[in-house]
Automatic annotation (TrEMBL), chain A:
NCBIfam families noted in UniProt: PDH_E1_alph_x (TIGR03181)
Cofactor(s) the protein requires to work: thiamine diphosphate
PANTHER family named among the record's database cross-references: 2-OXOISOVALERATE DEHYDROGENASE SUBUNIT ALPHA, MITOCHONDRIAL
EC number: 1.2.4.1
Protein name per Swiss-Prot or TrEMBL: Pyruvate dehydrogenase E1 component alpha subunit
Species classification: Bacteria, Bacillati, Actinomycetota, Actinomycetes, Micrococcales
UniProt organism field: Pseudarthrobacter enclensis
Keyword annotations from UniProtKB, A to Z: Oxidoreductase, Pyruvate, Thiamine pyrophosphate
UniProtKB/TrEMBL annotation, chain B:
UniProt keyword Protease, yes or no: no
Record protein name field: Pyruvate dehydrogenase E1 component beta subunit
Sequence ranges assigned to domain Transketolase-like pyrimidine-binding in this UniProt record: 38-213
Top-rank taxon: Bacteria
Entry-linked InterPro entries: THDP-binding, Transketo_C/PFOR_II, Transketolase-like_Pyr-bd, Transketolase_C
CDD domains: TPP_PYR_E1-PDHc-beta_like (cd07036)
Pfam families, per the entry: Transket_pyr, Transketolase_C
Enzyme Commission number(s) from the entry: 1.2.4.1
UniProt keywords, alphabetically: Oxidoreductase, Pyruvate, Thiamine pyrophosphate
Organism for this UniProt entry: Pseudarthrobacter enclensis
Gene3D superfamilies: 3.40.50.920, 3.40.50.970
SMART domains referenced in this protein's UniProt entry, alphabetically: Transket_pyr (SM00861)
A GO molecular function held by the record: pyruvate dehydrogenase (acetyl-transferring) activity
């Protein structure tokens, strides 16, 4: 099978001219358009589960799919965030058990994906996360307590998306991918070189908006990286019930973009692949799709019972592929990490956990009038009426309580 | 890349009166002076062109809106005038169109998007309800979505299935959306410009059977008034949002209508006048926010009311209007408020639509039922 000539022929009718730019991107690697778009025959892995760097010759990579190992500094920074991310995941699960948080969809086991998704971006770039991506949002620099506000239950969001260039943590599956496309499109029209990373899960790739977003990004030739964390389950439903494609990364070719799959528990490989994707997108390659092969180690949320749909042996198998341990072994082996370094990083993680315990431990009083404040830019007469009604109701309640107290 | 495209925050609010007038005069040069017969389609098209001239962050996109100018020609000529980057066709995907508009609005643009027909906006319902309506609220006002979703709606054109729905109640029911629907050619211009300037998302419902309606309108005067108020940063005195219009004054009963039902209500009032009954017609103009004051003032004066809408009556904008008026005007009412609406059946095939649509006779029958003393 070859890719239709339309993709390589110069396109003079469309202003977006994806054909041209794509050809340029392909030229860099000296391969065919088809080989550029199709993922490598194997997932990209650089450090094996035992923490050993896979020698270049044994990586099984093909032309156009070779990736250099990221620099030491980036790897150490990533490890630190992995440790912090793991601690945050486990702290939050504890806070849910104590009733301090309403719910927390943990990314325990997926921290390498979370960390790499944030670290590959520059300050002016945008990220569009899901409900499961709190650690990625934090790694991007958003205050941890603000990130968790959504799960504490006093408002549907706690941070300003414009300030951090991070979309809301989105729950309606894949709807945020289109917002990512729009942000990239607006930036492109203004001539800015913003790259947008759009995140979703494996199950979510079945949604209509997944298709619409990938197609729009490809047709308008936008610098969007679709980053799919394939953690094998959508609540209880395994991947085999969502898709029978050779891999989720293979979906890319259907839209005319490049796809790659990567070991989602290997932060070295993730950084290598995502860094290159960001660079390509910024240089005008158009969108890319990266599938991270990982595993959801815990139940979907605290409200879910995963023993109803999967074997504990399967979970145990993945525990051996843990992203944090793997990276610790690798860095220690390379002499980049010693006991002092490890201790310092642990202290950092503990400090963030303490910040969360403190920030989520106190009950922040909610203001009922907040209900009416942000529906529109200015309140409508109807909202003014309803807000006065609630104020009156509360005033009468307070007066009744006061007189009861006085009567005691 | 077009360096002429800027973010709405830059463009908005600091459009000088001079810039606005320059844009206005450029667009106006092709027009004859003074009131002229103008179609609703032309008024909407002119409003889009003027808004795009006034603010480079205003973008128009949708299905067939580029080279073709839209299936109703409302975007005619915009691609030629402003280039493919500012008025363009998207792939066929309504959720994609709305979702991308959300992202563009987050990133400083003012998208004005077209849904080709009422029923073809349904694939975008999730984006509209879960994001367009809620983004401002969930971010405590940090993210504003100044976007306009234009939807041709309603029947009366002999359209086949899925081309004649009155879908306004879905949007009006959704907190966080503004819903405008013009019923005159002048309002077509005024209200679309106001919708585009609004920092809130607006669902702009265009009565499709009125696209070819002509009124005598002075577009350059409307443009001048709008640009002046824009330069002053206020639409006070001119604004249509939350302001119903008295389309025809009267004393005996009030007909409350919006969009495509306004001309029907006016025709009914005309017929009633021949029989000696003076009916006041209120054109709601913006369903959200609703102008309780103007509607109730009229009903308190006349003591009788009929609400008219093409949409099914059950759980609809018309039922909402009856409830609101009843709550506020009960002691002024001489008779229960009546409604004349579409039947609670799926919109019928072309040969049956005349039985479905509220018409003059049905309205007059309802008026006759308002417990007159003599
Ligand atoms: C449109 C929509 N349908 C259903 C849901 C309910 N839901 C929440 S998470 C989820 C599973 C998603 O699985 P996946 O995309 O694999 O992401 P994961 O939770 O595994 O990270 C479902 C069905 C939803 N949030 N949005
Ligand atoms: Mg999953």
């Amino acid at each position: 099978m070859t890719i239709s000539a339309d993709h390589t022929a110069p396109d003079t009718t469309s202003s977006a001219a994806p054909g041209n730019a794509l050809t340029e991107a392909v030229k860099k690697f000296g391969i065919t358009v088809e080989d550029y778009m199709l993922p490598a025959r194997h997932q990209i892995q650089m450090v094996d589960p035992d923490g050993r760097l896979i020698p270049e010759g044994e990586q099984g990579t093909q032309p156009g799919h070779e990736y250099p190992v990221p620099g030491d500094k980036e790897l150490l920074a990533a490890y630190e965030q992995l440790v912090v991310g793991r601690r945050v995941n486990d702290q939050n699960s504890a806070l849910v058990r104590q009733g301090r948080m309403a719910v927390y969809p943990s990314s325990h086991g997926q921290e390498a994906c979370q960390v790499a998704a944030a670290l590959c971006l520059s300050e002016g770039d945008w990220m569009f996360p899901t409900y499961r991506d709190a650690v990625a949002v934090m790694t991007r620099g958003v205050d941890p307590v603000q990130v968790m506000t959504i799960f504490r239950g006093d408002w549907h969001g706690g941070y300003d998306p414009l300030k951090y260039k991070v979309g809301i943590q989105c729950t309606p599956l894949t709807t945020q991918l289109l917002h990512a496309v729009g942000v990239a499109h607006a930036a492109k029209l203004r001539g800015e070189d913003t790259v947008v990373l759009a995140m979703c899960g494996d199950g979510a790739t079945s949604e209509g908006d997944f298709h619409e977003a990938l197609n729009f990004a490809a047709v308008f030739h936008l610098p969007v990286i679709f980053f799919v964390q394939n953690n094998k389950y959508a609540i209880s439903v395994p991947l085999a019930h969502q898709s029978v494609a050779p891999s989720l990364a293979h979906k890319a070719v259907g839209y005319g973009m490049a796809g790659e799959r990567v070991d989602g528990n290997d932060v070295v490989a993730l950084l290598a692949v995502l860094d290159r994707a960001v660079k390509l997108a910024r240089e005008g390659s158009g969108p890319l799709l990266v599938e991270a092969n990982t595993y959801r180690m815990q139940a979907h949320t605290n409200a879910d019972d995963d023993t109803r749909y999967r074997e504990s042996a399967e979970v145990a198998e993945w525990r051996a592929k843990d992203p944090v341990n793997r990276m610790r072994t690798y860095l220690t082996g390379r002499g980049l990490l010693d006991d002092d370094g490890e201790a310092r990083i642990r202290d950092h993680a503990e400090a963030v956990a303490a910040q969360l315990r403190e920030g989520l431990g106190e009950d922040v009083p909610v203001d009922p009038q907040e209900l009416f404040r942000h529906v529109f830019a200015a309140r409508t007469p109807q909202l003014k009426e309803q807000s006065a009604m609630l104020a009156d109701e509360l005033a009468r309640d307070a007066a009744a309580t006061d007189s009861k107290e006085a009567g005691k | 890349m077009s360096p002429t495209i800027t973010t709405s925050s830059e463009a908005n609010g600091n459009v000088s009166a001079a810039t606005a007038r320059a844009a206005a005069s450029a667009a106006a040069s092709a027009e004859a002076a003074g009131p002229q017969p103008v179609t609703m389609a032309k008024a909407l098209n002119t409003a889009l062109a003027d808004a795009m001239s006034a603010d480079s962050s205003v973008l128009v996109f949708g299905e067939d809106v580029g080279m073709l100018g839209g299936v109703f020609r409302i975007t005619d000529g915009l691609t030629a005038m402003f280039g493919e980057q500012r008025c363009f066709d998207t792939p066929l995907a309504e959720s994609g169109i709305v979702g991308m508009a959300v992202g563009m609005a987050i990133n400083g643009m003012r998208p004005v998007i077209e849904m080709q027909f009422d029923a073809f906006a349904y694939p975008a319902f999730e984006q509209i309800v879960s994001h367009v309506a809620k983004m401002h609220n969930r971010t405590k006002g940090a993210v504003k979505l100044p976007l306009v979703i234009r939807i041709p709606y309603g029947g009366g054109i002999g359209g086949v299935e899925h081309h004649c729905d009155s879908s306004e109640s879905y949007y009006a029911h959704t907190a966080g959306l503004k819903v405008y629907t013009p019923a005159t050619v002048a309002d077509g211009y005024r209200m679309l410009r106001e919708a585009i300037d609004s920092d809130d998302p607006v669902v702009f419902m265009e009565p499709k059977k009125m696209y070819w309606t002509k009124d005598s309108v002075d577009l350059s005067e409307l443009r001048r008034l709008h640009e002046d108020s824009r330069a002053e940063g206020t639409t006070a005195g001119l604004g249509t949002e939350g302001r119903a219009a008295v389309a025809r004054p009267g004393t005996d009963a009030t007909l409350i209508a919006y969009g495509p039902s306004v001309p029907t209500a006016l025709a009914a009032a005309e017929a009633a006048a021949l029989e000696g009954r003076s009916l006041e017609v209120i054109d709601v103009r913006t369903i959200v926010p609703f102008d309780d004051a103007t509607v109730c003032e009229s009903v308190r004066k006349t003591g009788r009311a009929v609400v008219i809408a093409e949409a099914h009556g059950f759980a609809s904008v018309s039922s909402e209007i009856v409830a609101r008026v009843q709550e506020r005007c009960f002691h002024y009412l001489a008779a229960p408020i009546r409604r004349v609406t579409g039947f609670d059946v799926p919109y019928p095939a072309p040969k049956l639509e005349k039985y479905y649509l509220p018409g003059v006779d049905r309205i007059l029958d309802a008026v006759d039922d308002l417990q007159w003393e003599n």
